[in-house]
Write a structure and sequence with these properties.
206 residues, alpha/beta, Rossmann fold, five-stranded parallel beta sheet, two-stranded antiparallel ribbon, 17% strand, binds adenosine-5'-triphosphate, binds magnesium ion
């Protein structure tokens, strides 16, 4: 259905993005820790990401950072990660890992992370658990993590970059300047300073 206005999720529906899909596959095969998929609005970032994740044989978490409210709080942040894990394929594939995580509850295919109280879990600890398997953590529109709480994801990402070899992060962004400024790989005050980022840019069709 070529006129479907929503993001595509299968290769048959996706027009001419073989090169980008191949670059994503290669970066993931090479266990690259952090991959940025950028391009202007409506260029097909979410579609390419979904088609890739649909085809790859690795459990993945897909977080839609754009669904966060402005000035989001910890509860909102944990809620997008919980939703990102609440998928049949992920829960089934990761069940034996997920069931030992303190601060994570599973009901059917719904995952709920504890964000406060005695059993609250930090994102770094969550990533350390997920790292027991090969996993992809994809964040669509990751620059939407910016804000007063923006540092929480960045710290956890920097931790996972350094310690969790089995996790590859794929971060998309329609505002490439904001995304790179947020990640701050060139900024000595950022936890991600000096880390490498595999950049894939979706260009307009000619
Ligand atoms: N290569 C493609 N083949 C077919 N349809 C496409 C392709 N790329 C994008 N589209 C269509 O264009 C629209 C925008 O795609 P998509 O939502 O994936 O882009 P995006 O870059 O994530 O957009 P946004 O910046 O709004 O998040 C959708 O209707 C999608 O189905
Ligand atoms: Mg999108």
């Amino acid at each position: 259905m070529l006129f479907d206005p929503r993001p595509k999720s299968t290769r048959e529906e996706l027009f001419d993005r073989e090169g980008e899909l191949e670059r994503l596959r290669k970066a993931v095969d090479e266990m690259k820790p952090m991959i940025a998929l950028t391009g202007v609005r409506r260029i097909g970032k979410t579609s390419v990401l979904k088609v890739f994740l649909n085809e790859v044989d690795v459990p993945y978490v897909l977080v839609d950072a754009r669904s966060l409210p402005p000035n989001y709080g910890l509860r909102d942040l944990y809620s997008v990660f919980s939703s990102g894990m609440s998928r049949k394929g992920f829960v089934e594939g990761m069940k034996d890992v997920l069931k030992v995580v303190k601060g994570l509850k599973i009901a059917g295919f719904e995952v709920e992370l504890s964000w406060k109280g005695r059993d609250a879990i930090s994102l770094s600890v969550l990533f350390d658990y997920l790292n027991m398997r090969r996993v992809i953590i994809a964040v669509d529109e990751a620059q939407c993590f910016r804000g007063p709480r923006g540092r929480i994801f960045l710290d956890a990402l920097a931790h996972a970059y350094d310690y969790d070899d089995n996790i590859s992060f794929i971060l998309t962004g329609s505002e490439v300047g904001l995304l790179y400024e947020y990640l701050g790989v060139d900024n000595p005050t950022s936890p991600l300073y000096g880390r490498s980022l595999e950049a894939i840019v979706l260009e307009r069709f000619t």
